[in-house]
Amino acid sequence: MVLVLCCTGWWLTRPMLSIYGNETQKVVTMNVTPETKLEISFIHSVQKTLVEEFLVPDEKLKGFVLNSTKYHSFGVGLPFMESDGAFRQEGNAFIMDDMNRHFNELNLRTGVGTKLTVTVDDQKFELYEMFEPGQKIDIVIIPRYKTFLR
């Protein structure tokens, strides 16, 4: 009996990556490991060019680390300063590596024409097709039991 309780407790506290729209509408909940790769892509609302952000879970599996951003034009809200990371150009793309920005959770919004898409490992979620413009999207790493309560 003790073994069953211990195993159940362990299972319920395992970290899960969850994506929610409209505060409580679950898009997906999946296992998360230090090797999980997360990509957020969208069309920049001002520049009208593709932006791709590359993240991984933090070392405690409680939040996210933005490692790199790839974009195709300079403009408002896009990294460009030396303090933002290591800048390089690859063909017609600008890439900012080594950004090391930490986030407890990711709060996004769908927008008109922004084509907000999230890819977790090889699973792609075209959130702009699932939710009306202006809807809040939350991406969190939480214990499994909290996925049942939200």
Automatic annotation (TrEMBL):
InterPro entries: DUF1850. Pfam families: DUF1850. This is DUF1850 domain-containing protein.
